[in-house]
Design a protein that fits this description.
The chain is of the alpha/beta class and 391 residues long. The chain has 13 helices and twelve strands. Helix 5 packs across helix 7. The N terminus is likely disordered. GO terms for molecular function: glucan endo-1,3-beta-D-glucosidase activity.
């Protein structure tokens, strides 16, 4: 009998402890994960399979993914998930998609087969089209957007999927102070009708905004703390008297100001890309793992707090971080291949506190959250086994 009483006492002690440890582990994961969007680029030859990426995204608690195409393998891998997808139309397809029949065929091929099981919510028609200064792209952007939207209407999908395009920050002629934000004069003839289209169908205006570029080009005049969301004196807009403690929020409000100057106050601005490289060429000042970690961790904290910008405090920022993985085949400077939160093997490039697990990954010391949870589960399993053996 004494041994039975000891076993019962042991069980009564260790089972609550086991539950407590498991609960603590789950809470740890939940508090370290955030709901945010992320860009899933695939310009690389060493990325994990789409099914493994789907498992990683689930473990990260990411609720939105933006693609630069409409890869059927990705869309199929995420079937029956809660992840919302923004898919993309390639720039070179714009001239053909202004034709209504081609636009409808595109929707029938790239959206209809998947939308019943994968949450496709938006199509980005072209990416940074105006940067290329190619007339065949510039003049066909809006017609392609319109044809794609009309195809959605004809196919009964316009309530589920919206149409937009993503623009680089170079479309602004002025952005500081934020209230002086204005689009380039040579682009207004194209942007004005695009804004009217957004207003008509109630779709967002997407902008790719990188404070890194501004700092890299002028590190002696721009405060690093200001661009990294670190404590700083900030700046005050002399026209609105609004105070800004970081550059990204100032950039967003500059876009709002530019849109307002063209007569619209009913269009929401969303950030389709922002990020910070962990490595760069010698002349890419500020590209480092430390700065990338600081920028993205502080950005995710602002997202978690559902902060709005000074000019739009009641509208929480809606942001897609660039990018999920380092992409080793991207052209351009070294930084272009080093924006990823993760290496292709699933290990984090730096620690921003996200719990993420890529099936089949090799653990390293950077995976602090994973290591913590692994230890907790092993410990509780051993406790559970030991308690049972004593009965």
């Amino acid at each position: 009998m004494p041994s039975n009483r000891f076993a019962m006492a042991t069980s009564s002690f260790f089972f609550p402890l086991l539950l407590l440890l498991l609960t603590f582990s789950d809470l740890f994961v939940q508090t370290r994960s955030l709901n945010f969007g992320i860009n899933y680029g695939q310009i690389a030859d060493n990325l994990p399979s789409h099914s493994r990426v789907a498992a990683l995204i689930k473990s990260l608690n990411v609720t939105k993914i933006k693609l630069y195409d409409s890869d059927p393998n990705v869309l199929s891998a995420f079937s029956n998930s809660d992840v919302e997808f923004i898919i993309g139309v390639r720039n070179e397809d714009l001239p053909s998609l202004k034709d209504p029949s081609n636009a409808q065929s595109w929707i029938q091929q790239h959206v209809q087969p998947y939308i019943s099981q994968t949450k496709i919510t938006c199509i980005v028609v072209g990416n940074e089209v105006f940067d290329y200064n190619l007339s065949q792209l510039t003049v066909n952007l809006l017609p392609a957007m319109q044809s794609m939207y009309n195809a959605l209407v004809n196919l009964g999908l316009a309530q589920q999927v919206t149409i937009t395009s993503a623009h680089s920050y170079k479309i602004l002629a002025s952005s500081f102070p934020p209230s002086s934000g204005v689009f380039r004069q040579d682009l207004i003839q194209y942007i004005q009708p695009i804004l009217s289209f957004h207003s008509q169908i109630k779709s967002p205006f997407l902008i790719n905004a990188y404070p890194f570029f501004a700092y890299k080009d002028n590190p002696n005049q721009i405060s690093l703390n200001y661009v990294l969301f670190q404590p700083n004196s900030g700046s005050t807009d002399p026209i609105t008297n609004l105070h800004y403690d970081n550059m990204l929020f100032a950039q967003i409000d500059a876009v709002y100001a530019a849109i307002k100057k063209l007569g619209h106050t009913d269009i929401v601005v969303k950030i389709s890309e922002t990020g910070w490289p962990s490595k760069g060429d010698p002349d890419e000042v500020g590209a480092s793992p430390q700065n990338a970690e600081t920028y993205n961790s502080n950005l995710l904290r602002r997202i978690a707090q559902k902060q709005g910008t000074p000019a739009n405090p009641s509208v929480p920022i809606d942001i897609f971080v660039f990018a999920l993985f380092n992409e080793n085949l991207k052209p351009g400077p070294v930084s272009e291949r080093n924006y990823g939160l993760y290496y292709p093997d699933g290990n984090p490039v730096y620690n921003i506190g996200l719990q993420g697990y890529l099936p089949g990954m090799t653990f390293d010391s950077k995976s602090n959250v994973l290591s913590f949870n692994f230890v907790v589960y092993i410990f509780t399993f051993l406790l559970f086994t030991w308690a049972l053996s004593r009965q």
